[in-house]
Amino acid sequence: MIIVGVQSCAVGVGSSILGDKNTSGAGAMGLLVAFLFLIGGAFAFAKPIVSTVVFLLGCLAAIIAASGSSFTDMWIWAGVSFVLAIMSYFAHRGDKKKQKTHATGAGA
User: CA-CA-CA-CA torsion for 59, 64, 71, 23, nearest 10 degrees?
Assistant: First the structure.
């Protein structure tokens, strides 16, 4: 998250100085992705389904930022966010199976 934020901040500032509005906007989107990484990580253990949705939103934002500018590193962050979303989904699914097992075992 820190790497995404610092990289996006540097791209945004550098692009603003050079007058490249598309890449400057992608830098701002990168900061949004970094914030979504922070939120997704905060919910990863307690509410993995919320984390899944937040990481998918981060993936979507990174794809939009990468496709409309020369800030191509956002493709990497989109992939990372998608992998984190998949991992959070499987964590949620594992929690549901565990709760179902406990509920069935408690009734027997």
Answer: -140
Tell me the C-alpha distance between 88 and 82, whole Å.
Answer: 10
pTM of the model: 0.84
With left for phi above 0 and alpha for psi between -120 and 50, is residue 20 left, alpha or beta?
A: beta
User: Is residue 72 within 8 Å of residue 94, measured between CB atoms?
Assistant: no
**Token duo for residue 27:** 């830098």
What are the tens digits of pLDDT across the range 24-71? 888 889 899 999 999 999 999 999 999 999 999 999 999 999 998 888
Q: Estimate to the nearest angstrom the gap between the alpha carbon of 29 and the chain centroid.
A: 12
Q: Alpha-carbon distance 70 to 108, whole Å?
A: 60
